[in-house]
Amino acid sequence: MSALFSGLMVMLFAGNPQAASSPWAANEQGRVRLITGVDSVGDTGDLAAGLHFEMQPGWKIYWRSPGDAGYPPQVDWSGSNNVSAVEMAWPLPHRFELFGLQTFGYGDEVIFPLTVTLQNPGQATQLVGSVDYLTCSEICVPQSAVLDLTLPSGDGGEVLDNLLIKQYESQVPGSEADGLTLETLALAGTLNAPIIEATLRSDQPLERPDLLVEGPPGFFYGKPEVTLSDADRQALIKVTVGKGSLAEGVLDGKRLTLTVMDGDRGLERSWLARFGAGTEVSGVLAAPTTEFASFGLWTILGMALLGGLILNVMPCVLPVLSIKLLSVAKQSGRETRAVRMGFLASSAGIVTSFLLLAFLAIGLKQAGLAVGWGIQFQQPIFLAVMAFLLTLFACNLFGFFEIPLPSSMGKVAAGARHEGVVGHFMTGAFATLLATPCSAPFLGTAVGFALARGPAEILLIFAALGVGLALPYLLVAALPQLATRLPKPGPWMITLRRLLGFALAGTALWLLSVMAAQIDLYAAAVVGILLLLIGFVIWRSRAGRLRRGLALPSVAALALLVVMVSAMMPRPGGREAVAADDLWGDFKQVEIAELVADKKVVFVDVTADWCITCQVNKTLVLGRSPVLDALRAEGVVALQADWTNPDEKIAAFLESFGRYGIPFNVVYGPAAPQGIPLPELLTDDAVLEGLRQARGG
Description:
Layout: H1 2-12, E1 25-27, E2 30-36, E3 46-55, E4 60-67, E5 74-76, E6 83-88, E7 94-98, E8 101-107, E9 109-118, E10 125-136, E11 140-151, H2 161-169, E12 180-190, E13 193-202, E14 210-214, E15 219-221, E16 225-229, E17 234-243, E18 255-262, E19 265-272, E20 276-277, E21 279-281, E22 284-286, H3 297-310, H4 318-329, H5 336-366, H6 380-397, H7 407-413, H8 421-435, H9 443-451, H10 455-478, H11 481-484, H12 491-518, H13 521-542, H14 548-568, E23 584-586, H15 592-597, E24 601-607, H16 612-622, H17 627-631, E25 636-642, H18 648-656, E26 664-669, E27 672-677, H19 684-695
Parallel strand pairs: 23-25, 24-25
Antiparallel strand pairs: 1-2, 2-3, 3-9, 4-8, 5-10, 6-9, 7-8, 10-11, 12-13, 12-20, 13-17, 14-18, 15-17, 16-17, 18-19, 21-22, 24-26, 26-27
Helix pairs in contact: 3-9, 3-10, 4-12, 5-8, 5-10, 6-12, 6-13, 6-14, 7-8, 9-10, 12-13, 13-14
């Protein structure tokens, strides 16, 4: 084809002088030379030239980013005269696949356009290039050549080869391409297994759309998955990203060069990879930044401390509050030193538990798994163990404990009978576990900042969260008289214990309802019956109607059955979004970008059965007027993302906003295609204002 094109040009421009060029440097695989578009050096400060390769059939050379193998042509211009710089452009390459390896390069013929900047315009110029390149077919052969082209001074008239150079200049991708638009970019997937998603729009049917990614060393990119739509005029292109041993950190925050192409059309874009969808503004794709992008570490530590403190008054801490109230009530009349040591031990239990959660998060991140605040409540075994421990706590508060439990279990379960430091420490640890299904103002920002950073930041921020949650305990430790001056224990203490026992029993029942949503109603019912049997065994032992030697083995056997039932029951394939008067659509079944393009306002509620703050938001704000009326209005689409069970798509969606916990609510619309995140604790004004801003009026 190129030979035919050249022949036609010769016929068309038969009167023009032939282009100045160097001699061909030939080998068995092909040949290479230098050409120029002029016959002499004119008065301009630069001249157009080209590095011209012709390859034998079946052989190829490589693009500037060769892919899984190979290396690109490299040229040393230091032997040139009257040349200050040479810039080489790279036409669109072809994708080659051999034995599963993806490489990029050129077969048959290619010209790399050169822009030669002269030291002294108008003077004779010698262009000397020492070229090293690799030719490959089934085998690869390194090649080298020294090319020498001299141009005299003159009027700089154009010659025939200038048309060839311009032909390949038109194939060099720029920021724009005729009829080709890169509409959106997104970094989806997870932090350690990201996926690049691009939406390409064309004014004519697309034939072979492709996306080439160039990034920092150590990252590699899979073959794109292309989905065509709109009569083949739109393409959704997805590229998986892998990480080798040389890669440093994660792809989020790294600068990438993206080349998107279809046939001879292509465009190139530099992009700072960030989780979340980007929108095109003035021809430049801008990725969103997370809400904590401008915060420093000290600011985040302050937020973590405040978020942990606020967590004490969130609705999910009802069972924790029960433990705290009982701890305070029991201190009346005790020595100041004993009170201080007890509350310091509880504080240490809280902070230690947060540090253990931090180490767990670090381990999950290193393994490439999803991390998040409260995700342990997605595991039925964890729910079963917590329900069992709550049953023991409740039985203790009801006064059933008379059996000789081992000291370690007794100190966890029988706070009234075992006042050792270990018991107080375990009380603090248990309080932390029960508080984690809840979020609070500032907590989401702090956790998101931590989990998007390295191990050191995770440890520091989780420690600050623990200190914040422990502040009430530390206050009593600093001022023991707050506890010692309470009324002495009496009948009021028995009434308080029983009320708190019912609160803990209610919490255990709530955990069973979450388990029913995760696995099966009948399995949760079986676990509930087993827990009732445990309470019955303990009560019978207390009443003297069961031999104490049989009580502990019976409780242990029933507890083992609780864990086995929760572990052996298979999970259903997925849960449908909980609908309220057909208001909520399923987040996983729609494309938000398409709804926004259709001028819709989209409200997304990420929730879970185990997230008590989510249920409070739903009851007090989302399920009542005026917010409910606004969500039902024409042009508004309400979507619910149910995270009761693990779900990679929802985890990636949260991660795209720098969030790792729920509740999370965000509003999209024509004026907010990237989304407007809302606070953890919703208010009518916050939701209505978000809807108004997203709508753009």
